[in-house]
Specification:
Blueprint lengths: L1 H49 L3 E9 L4 E8 L14 E4 L2 E9 L10 E7 L1 H4 L5 E7 L5 E7 L1
Antiparallel strand pairs: 1-2, 2-5, 3-4, 3-6, 4-5, 6-7
């Protein structure tokens, strides 16, 4: 009888070890799948942001209409998405200004493409003398500035 109980004890211990190993495998597989997915998304987002770049091509102040006309060009290697009056931010001399119209027909600027932006802020845009600084921020957080003379 003594030999039978030790065999049963060994079998029970082996079953417990196998069950714990299966549980650990399942848990680690789930964690690594989640980490891999999150990392892939972060790498894609970062790569896209690094490939996005723009510059202000031209900026001028129309004294009659009290509007600043700005043209931006996509100089990056990826399309600038969701360009519009609600996603862009425009600053004139550090003050946020209203964007009347922005973008292209599709709202995106492809590589090498341009978009026109009309900014209303006549009081701040052109003081009595001197120049003003126009700053545009796109959805990825990139900014560019240009000085205009009055």
């Amino acid at each position: 009888m003594k030999g039978v109980s030790s065999v049963i004890a060994i079998i029970l211990i082996l079953m417990i070890v196998v069950a714990l190993a299966a549980l650990a495998y399942t848990w680690f597989t789930g964690i690594f799948a989640s980490l891999t997915s999150t990392t892939a998304t972060a790498v894609t987002t970062t790569t896209s942001a690094m490939a996005t770049s723009f510059r202000i091509e031209a900026a001028k102040f129309d004294t009659t209409a009290k509007v600043v006309y700005v043209t931006i060009r996509n100089v990056g290697s990826s399309t600038i998405k969701s360009l519009g009056t609600t996603t862009l931010a425009a600053y004139v001399n550090g003050y946020q200004s209203t964007i009347n119209s922005a973008g292209t027909t599709t709202g995106d600027i492809t590589t090498g493409g341009t978009a026109s932006i009309n900014i209303t802020n006549g009081t701040v845009a052109c003081p009595a003398t001197g120049s003003s600084t126009i700053t545009i921020t796109i959805p990825t957080g990139l900014t560019d500035s240009r000085s205009i003379t009055c």
